[in-house]
Write a structure and sequence with these properties.
Oligomer: single chain
Structural class: alpha+beta
Strand order of the largest sheet: 4-1-7-5-6
Bound molecules: magnesium ion
Number of strands: 7
Strand content: 25-35%
Distance between the termini: 11 Å
Number of helices: 5
Radius of gyration: 15 Å
Length: 157
Amino acid sequence: MKIGLGFDVHRLVKGRKLILGGVEIPCQLGLLGHSDADVVLHALADAIAGALGADDIGTIFPNSNPEFKDISSKKILAYYTLLLAERKMKITNLDMVILAERPKLSPFYSTIRKELAHLLSIDTERIGIKAKTAEGLGMIGEEKAIACWVTLLLDSI
Ligand code: MG
């Protein structure tokens, strides 16, 4: 078994879509980044990379490369799910905390869980999602950013 941990944070700005876990969430603000800035998929991909001892997403998909401008983070995750298959490993379960002052994310848990289950080819029962506010404190609380932590366990196929 192998354990992985991933983290990501992106700045919230006007004029961008808010995409979390591959799902577009209705919001006046969106996350700024070189790709679609999906903090959930970035943290998830890095958690897989960490568990495998593989290069992280910043190394494989550098934001200095125009080829990766505005790409869907599903493509980033797909690189790591392929790597999982090559290494003959599967995700036993994953858990995450999304830190966001708004929007309220609990109405979207089910949709995000289904999308992640689809992208990872695992059952929805293996995916934990929790969103927390920062009680108005700091960059998250001031609605300047959204952050996400993902932890997961891998086992051999
Ligand atoms: Mg990122």
